Amino acid sequence: MYGLVWLNYQPAGRREPASTIVLAGVGRKTTFVTKRSACTLPSGCIEEALANATFPILMTYGSDDIYGDLMTGPRDRVPNATFEVWQGVSHLPWLDDPERFESSLRAFFALAE
Fold first, then answer.
1. Rounded CA gap, 77 and 58, in Å?
2. Superfamily name with CATH number, domain 2-112
3. 3-state SS string for 12-54
């Protein structure tokens, strides 16, 4: 199942098989435990915490993200965040362009210090 989900997150025209390294440890139990934990949080608590955050937040997403314009929603909910839209990248920028992702993180956290 996760191999099929993986393909949905790949940019059109360059879909690659699921990485066994990335998906190692991901399975039904992990998914349901995470979902169950998230469902026990009070409604809106994450959004409230992020909207009032005093720490640096970096959000990256790709121009080819399968969620498209929905990814712009966090801009309104997390006004203090830095947003980067990467051209030609899909939903998983750290997998599509790991070198750029590392460089972006290093630069972001260097500025935040």
1. 13
2. Alpha/Beta hydrolase fold, catalytic domain (3.40.50.1820)
3. CCCCCCCCHHHHCCCCHHHHHHHHHHHHCCCCCHHHHHHHCCC
Average pLDDT, 10 consecutive residues per value, the chain (113 residues): 61 64 67 74 80 86 77 77 86 83 91 66
- Separation of alpha carbons 38 and 31, rounded Å: 11
| Nearest-angstrom CA–CA distance, 73 and 8 | 21
CB atoms within 10 A of CB 101: 18
Total residue length of the chain: 113
Angle CA(98)–CA(108)–CA(83) in degrees, nearest 5? 80
CA distance 12 to 89: 10
Q: Give helix then strand counts, H and E, for the chain.
A: 7, 2
CA–CA distance, 83 with 65 (Å, rounded to integer): 14
**Domain extents in the chain:** 2-112
CA–CA separation, 70 vs 43, rounded Å?
Answer: 20
